[in-house]
Write a structure and sequence with these properties.
This protein is mainly α and about 110 residues long. It contains five helices and two strands, in the order αααββαα. α4 packs across α5.
């Protein structure tokens, strides 16, 4: 089920970590996406405002519009064991989530204070 709903599972590859160490031309950062407001505040200081504000365009996958979620009816939010299992699978099977799990709370965490 997890693999079926991943939109871009290969957008990150752990080989980037080796490039970062070897070349010292970029550094990878991470941040906790929830709540999103601290990240938006941080990035508002880095990026310029859009010249033209547009309405949100819904996401598409395989030429099909994604359905609007109803979290109240999603079983995962009512089951802590299931949430932990999904986190475990994401960290073990996807480089992106594995990197984030190791990065959060370190000097490479964009929002880490300390």
């Amino acid at each position: 089920e997890i693999g079926r709903v991943m939109m871009t599972p290969n957008r990150f590859n752990k080989s980037l970590l080796q490039l970062e160490e070897q070349r010292d031309i970029f550094s990878l950062k991470c941040f906790n996406p929830l709540p999103i407001e601290p990240y938006l505040e941080h990035m508002s200081q880095k990026l310029q405002q859009k010249r033209f504000h547009t309405r949100y365009a819904p996401r598409w996958k395989n030429n099909q519009k994604l359905r609007i979620r109803d979290k109240e009816n999603e079983c995962i939010w009512k089951n802590k064991m299931l949430q932990n299992l999904v986190r475990k699978i994401l960290v073990e099977d996807y480089d992106y989530f594995s990197y984030c799990a190791k990065c959060l709370g370190t000097k490479n965490d964009l929002l880490h204070i300390g």
